[in-house]
Amino acid sequence: MMEQRNFKSIGRPISLLGFGLMRLPLLSADAKDIDGDAVNRMVDRAVEAGVNYFDTAWVYHEGRSETFAGEALSRHPREKYCLATKMPSWVLESAGDVERIFNEQLKKCRVEYFDFYLMHNLGAERYDLALKYNVYEFLRKKKEEGQIRHLGFSMHDAPEQLLRLVNAHEWDFAQIQLNYLDWETLKAKEMYDILSGRGIPIVIMEPVRGGVLASLTPSAEDILKDADAKASLASWAIRYAASLPGVMTVLSGMSNYEQLEDNIKTMSNFRPLSDDERSVLEKAAIAYRASGAIPCTSCRYCMDCPSGVDIPRVFAVYNHYRVLMTGRPNFAEMVFGTNYQALTDGERAHNCVSCGQCVEHCPQGIDIPGHLREITELAAGM
Hints:
The chain is an alpha/beta fold. It folds into 2 domains: 4-289, TIM Barrel, CATH 3.20.20.100; 311-380.
């Protein structure tokens, strides 16, 4: 049976596994080319298994995620699912855009109300834009009118910004990035403590860090496999986030049916992590960090690059190389060369002109131009 969490302020049980509609199955490399049949099949299976929290956003899949969410979920009774979407302050050009986007989202998602609605990725600059256009006030009104049941926000910023947000407004829930790699390094623990200390239900995003924690270095993987040979690497990460008190749901951006089934298995008859298992994860995290991989989650907020570089794919190729380098250096170089050549010339790292636009949008604060220069040098030397 799917694990559920109950919060008095929410008023209904929420499945501990949330379906993130950010990395849907594709028919090609184009993020807009979503495989609708596969999405329907996965959503049907999720609902059947007891998943009732589905998370989308205006910008996911270059504007297509909400449409596919509406098509897939509208085939089920409305009481069977909770739908969450978000208002992106960075695309607003006027106060009128807030209402226009909200109304379009209702149509795209084929609903009359949103169970959960978030102000999207409220870093300091984007929050200032939201203040400029009175986004919070508009959404509070929509909540009073019944078109929003629960109002919250998501963020990828520092604890100081989180404090600014929770002190400024009344929130029903909040969504933060949290996983066993980021617990200390990106101060996820501090942000978790802020929210849990105030009794604000927490939605966890990036529990598997964009798939990174499902594909570890050989040394890190060996540590987890020695502890439990049958458990998937992703299940360790999912359980880590789900074991924390105060967590309402853990989002997983599932790209195929196998990932869905693995997550359903993990969250059904849920078993929280033991202290010994937490120690195992700490050792695995230390081993993984030693690889020098770039902490990219493939969220694609950095795209589109004005120079044409496919930043997430370039980083994915490089990270695969770094993982292989820890055990098979000659093979790693061969694989890197093959995978890098599979990118078109226009998509490769050497096209970067260090304009900095990507850095402004990166939730992880990655020095993207610096890493692209390193990868350019690596490719040139092979």
